[in-house]
Amino acid sequence: MADVIPIIKGKRVAILVEQEFEDGEVIFLSEKLRASSAAVVFVAPSAPTQYRGKHGHIVTSDVAAGRGAHASTFDAVVIPGGYAADRMRMRHAMVDLVREAVEAGKPVAAICYGPQLLISAKAVRDKMITCWPTIAIDIKNAGGLYMDKPVVEDGNLITSRKSDDLAAFSDAIIRALSRVPNASNYEVSP
Amino acid sequence: MADVIPIIKGKRVAILVEQEFEDGEVIFLSEKLRASSAAVVFVAPSAPTQYRGKHGHIVTSDVAAGRGAHASTFDAVVIPGGYAADRMRMRHAMVDLVREAVEAGKPVAAICYGPQLLISAKAVRDKMITCWPTIAIDIKNAGGLYMDKPVVEDGNLITSRKSDDLAAFSDAIIRALSRVPNASNYEVSP
Asked: Which of A61, B32, B35, B37 has CB atoms 3.0–4.6 Å from A44's, for a disulfide?
């Protein structure tokens, strides 16, 4: 994977967090992206704020959605699972960030319950999507084409089912980031 | 309310439980129904099994869905909130129990996230429904007519938004039970 590392160097990736995120997913994804030289930014409804995962892992958010964090300031948006995704649906700025990133054609990746936020952002119609099985019916009702596969890519959407799929999921995110033109030079107000 | 008590005496009400149920809702509803002389039966994917609420309250299930528990053995089905509802969607026997009760015209009541199970049972199309706000979009995508009211009744469906609505919710359940003909005399195999 050595050839991938320089390609996504300097890319800015928003990982969305809220209370009750899936600890293992946030840890794996942030470490994997950083190991690939991407800049990981934790985006949440408020910042700097401590958010606690289902199993107790603490993440301190870097920027608040709608304040420092806008879709234009990231190369990709990643939505981890856990019941955090349900909580994020309640926050307009989080939903707006996802919708704007999808509309801008940036890679938007969601795993487990993360695709709930894609439903709220009205981003799944006619798209092939996978997700945690309990919400498959919600994806279908939203007009999405549910598939039971470790990772599903359709346009700029990347989705996975569960933590077991993390390796394939993160590889797909890194591949997508490597296709994003370089030289992004964002100014971010905190 | 003294006139209500004899009317639902002997009625059998299934309260559906799974891990991470909303403690306050299960406690309030079971106490209120028992105070009205209804027989409360805790139905879960397995029984007898201990299920733990979000805040640590333990409920031991009485009968397992699909084994002792069928829609025909209850006068009403109540689906409390919490992430238990999400877990129940994964259990075919729980979804089947709800669908059969809805189809049999029995009162089926769901609060908070409970209506997620109504989506899985394909019971919401063209029905007026309320629910926890994060899943309102899922109700609409399933063809339901979402309303933001403490309690919404449409045919045999009774729905509420959150724990604050429990008084109105339980009153509506008891009113609906009082309209169910008496002399139910069920045999239940454990």
From this structure: A61
Pairing of strands A157-160, A108-111: parallel
In a domain, B190, yes or no: no
Amino acid at A125: R
Examine residue B189 and state whether it is found in any structural domain, yes or no: no
Which is catalytic among the residues A112, A117, A136, A176?
A112
Q: Which domain range does residue A136 map to?
A: 4-176
Question: For residues B113 and B125, what is the distance between their CA atoms, to the nearest angstrom?
Answer: 17
The H or E element that residue A59 is part of is: strand A58-60
pTM of structure: 0.91
Q: Which residues of A touch B89 (CB under 8 A)?
A: 134, 137
The per-residue pLDDT for range A132-157, each reduced to its tens digit, is: 999 999 999 999 999 999 999 999 99
The answer, for B125 touching chain A at a CB cutoff of 8 Å, is no
Give yes or no for A19 touching B (CB within 8 A): no
Residue A189 included in any domain: no
d(CA B10, CA A163): 47
Write the CATH number for A137: 3.40.50.880
Q: What is the mean pLDDT of each run of 10 residues along chain B (190 residues)?
A: 56 97 98 95 97 97 89 95 96 97 97 98 98 98 98 98 97 94 51
